[in-house]
Amino acid sequence: MILPAIDILILSFLIYRSYQILIQTKAIQLVRGAALMALIYAVAFFFKLQTLLWVLNLMVPGLVIGVAIIFQPELRKIFTQIGQGGWFKFASSEQILQLDEVIQAAVTLSSKRRGGLIVIARQVGLKNYIDTGTRLEAEITAKLIVTIFGHDTPLHDGALIIEGGKIAASGCFLPLSEQPDIRRSFGTRHRAALGLAEETDAVVVVVSEESGAISLAYDGNLIYDIPETQLRKRLRELFIMGGEGSMEETEEGVLEE
Questions:
Q1: Alpha helices in 71-141 (DSSP H)
Q2: Which neighbouring-strand residues pair with 138?
Q3: Do 243 and 140 share a domain, yes or no?
Q4: Are residues 160 and 170 in contact, defined by beta-carbon separation less than 8 angstroms?
Q5: Span 95-115, pLDDT tens digits
Q6: Taking Cα atoms as reference points, which of 184, 21, 202, 177 lies closest to residue 125?
Q7: Domain end position, chosen among 51, 82, 113
Q8: CA count, 13 A, side-chain hemisphere, 78
Q9: Is 112 helix (H, G, I), strand (E, B) or coil?
Q10: Could you tell me if 148 and 210 lie in one domain?
């Protein structure tokens, strides 16, 4: 009785984690489409609709190839997250303090109307992006982050990247998002934050120089003008137990300015 129970628990956990990964990407649409096609095929098979079965059998190979092409970014992200590990990872008290320093820095930059772009690595390494900036390997403090994003500092342009519990580099270049539905009012910082969130599992905090609004980008989405309390909650969700903060609570803030 013990082994079957363990078998069921492991399978349930794998299904649950797979679902969590899927809902972070547009691949959930792929699952729904596949389920619909399977339902149509089952109906055709049950009622022996030979013409429909013939058409479906012709379409399947082409659909598989088309899905692989259209959903290539989402499929890549799924396999990347599966290979990351860290499903049982807990955040240390030191990591929580570091997150608090980032939040404090973002709030200070917001009050001073200084733009900021702060990247916090998770499981996927960011070496390629770190190499585009100036290496620092410095302690994470709010004062240092605010100083880096000062108007007259040589490192205020570009992104500051935190990896391995350190400020790894600053003045880094990030890929810009190519989402067709992103608002034109978004500046380079927001597009870069969203672009990195599409390519990796990094979490990006953005401070708008024009409005002082704080935004949070992760898992291919961006929440604009997120309150400090909500920012703190989301960051702790994302870095404790490998949590994936839900976008549902502030859906109206996603990709809006």
A1: 72-82, 93-111, 127-130
A2: 167
A3: yes
A4: yes
A5: 888 999 999 999 999 999 999
A6: 202
A7: 82
A8: 19
A9: coil
A10: yes
